[in-house]
Amino acid sequence: MYTAETFDYDDVGKIDLTNIYDRPDPRSYYATLRRLNYIIPQTAKPVFQHVIDAYRQAHDKDKVRIVDVGCSYGINAAMLKGDLEMEQLYSLYAPDVTANARRSQLLSRDQKIAEDVFKESELEVVGLDASANAINYAVEANLLDGGVAADLESGRPSPEVAAVLDDTDLVISTGCIGYVGESTFKGILEVNAPRKPWMVHFVLRMFPFTEIEEILSANGYVTEKVEDQTFLQRRFASEEEQEHVLERLASLDIDPEGLESDGWYHAEAFISRPLDARADLRLGDITSS
Length: 289
Ligand SMILES: C[S@@+](CC[C@H](N)C(=O)[O-])C[C@H]1O[C@@H](n2cnc3c(N)ncnc32)[C@H](O)[C@@H]1O
What we know:
By secondary structure, the protein is α/β, with parallel strands linked by helices.
């Protein structure tokens, strides 16, 4: 069940993966996360598509501009614009396929894939990530339509950041909250004001969404949690990691039975929209729509 790899732990008890987030190309990212069965972009995809459809209906337009917060190497962009699956991405960057490739060769291949599979897309996806390498790769490969490397936890948006993040219809994230919190969302709201982009965030149960929800509420949003479902993120890397997480959940009074106790991280999905956008339909009840 567990890999034999050893990892350091971060201050909330998760394994520390920061050394794969900022490499010149995505190979280590995909190789490491595949071994951990990281699948949240895949489990999130139908919810993103559902909300994109609802946004299009509500605004009577096809073109949707998305900001992916903590976008890394453009994973959600590839999956939404090109209708690719996580397993296809893992295969594309697998060591047996890419071990001898130079970065420039990978980039050319990915530019070609983007050209072929994004052709019909009416989605424009730009990214924000603290990792300059990840952003550079995803932008050069044309997986992202734009991107900026910045850490809005430690500073306000610069004009360069604002230019990428403004005019947004929808803000999304997977696997990122915990690294980012209220400060990043304040920054995104600030550069978009008075426009209020819709938002969909997948958040591990060990990270309460409350404080971000409060910021959004104070800015005229209402948040729905997708009901009766959790979303698999990845399996624990070790029994030790699972123990840390179970302890943290216990301290938050969250019952792990049938979920984290079975060996996987689970995320919840939060959909936030401006108050005036809600009248038509509830989005949190996606199973019945
Ligand atoms: C687990 S990865 C998730 C990547 C991608 N969303 C996915 O699901 O595959 C977390 C990402 O958050 C980024 N990150 C960490 N701290 C950040 C910050 N303060 N601002 C923006 N991104 C950050 C990391 O560089 C990394 O790319």
